Amino acid sequence: MAGLYLHIPFCKRRCIYCDFYSTTCIDRHAEYTKALCREIALRKDFLKTNTLSTIYIGGGTPSLLPIEDLTFIFEEIKRHFRISPSAEITLEMNPDDVSVSKVKDIRLHTPVNRVSMGVQSFDDEELRFLQRRHTSDAAIKAVEVLKSFGLTNISIDLIYGLPGQTLAGWEKNIQKALKLDVPHLSAYALIYEENTKLWTLRDEGVVQETPEQTSLDMFNSLIDHVEKAGFVHYEISNFAKPNFESKHNSSYWDEVPYLGCGPSAHSYNGECRQWNIADLDTYIKTINELHHGITPAQPLFESEHMSIPTRYNDRVVTSIRTAKGLDICVLEQDFGADLATYCLRMAEPYLQQGLLEKTTPSDQKPKGVLKLTRKGIFLSDGIMSDLMWVD
């Protein structure tokens, strides 16, 4: 098993909260697509397998690419990899880009079988504040169009804790999302990232952060509503109907190797992590130099060897955030008794506070499993940080 992530960095305009690498130079899409395909060819051996169980095309806004570019990308993938017959192949789409002709082309010319759509809100005023391109009606219509062409494996993203957002307003968003009858929901608390317009607006006093208790109330309300609707809360920010969990994202949490191509994309093969340069011009120039056998002026990516403490820290972060939790016996087998003992010692205060729980040992899990409680989920970043090993 292995995954492939492709970063499409183009956006018509940047949302005020986004700190992912992107550019509005959409006219360079053909040049970029060629470079991306060259990177796929150059780095095809990184994974040590040629079979892909998941492909995820994210961004940016991948749905801005013409169908010719998407077709070209999949042709290149198939030249170097075998795509498993059961592979999950996800394309991120903006609701504003979903049209009958676009979806028809995707179904006819690509193997895409899952769509992740950044709805963020069903309130038009909130969408205008976030500087999203679509309206609530457009998002609803987009889901209808996707379903009409048999693309029913749909995930939608929502954001809560917007400035001025009320609990009642958030619950209206939840209800509208559930009414669409999609099998996957992702919901994130609004984060004020440095170097974003949102950060500036807060610093200038134009907006204020939502009180922590209000955000907690919104998160708890979300859990109540979606679980009642039959969703499983399988990761901190992700909810799915049974058997519709995101296979690609789950592979990150399960430490399945993946190759990331495109500017700022990350890769992991079990031995090292790599992350590409986050600049379109430098990325294209470097890829083209490598393609022609020229030593580039600067490396395509930076890398980090995965030491045992680093791998232990990764295991803590990726496991604790999921409903499956952190298996203490497996932790000890993989990283030794000392690190397993350290983990349990650091977890003890959180167990006493009811923020973590430890399952009763069983034949299958002889030392139990550490899991976040519902109360602990909202404080997960601090909990995971304290369980990590620091030299």
| SS class | alpha/beta
Mean pLDDT: 96
Please state how the strands of the largest beta sheet are arranged side by side.
7-8-6-5-4-3-2-1-9
Strand content: 15-25%
Helix content: 40-55%
What does this protein structure show overall?
By secondary structure, this protein is α/β, with parallel strands linked by helices. It folds into two domains: 3-253, pyruvate-formate lyase- activating enzyme (Alpha-Beta Horseshoe), CATH 3.80.30.20; 308-387, Orthogonal Bundle (Arc Repressor Mutant, subunit A). 42% of the residues lie in helices and 20% in strands. The chain has helices spanning 29-42, 67-80, 100-109, 124-130, 136-148, 167-179, 197-203, 212-228, 247-253, 280-291, 308-320, 328-335, 337-352, 374-377, 380-387; strands at residues 3-8, 51-59, 82-93, 114-120, 154-160, 184-189, 232-235, 238-240, 258-261, 266-268, 272-276, 301-305, 326-327, 356-358, 369-372. The chain has a nine-stranded mixed β-sheet with strand order 7-8-6-5-4-3-2-1-9, sandwiched between helices. A three-stranded antiparallel β-sheet has the order 10-11-12, with no helix packed on it. The longest helix is centred in the middle third of the chain and has 17 residues, at 212-228.
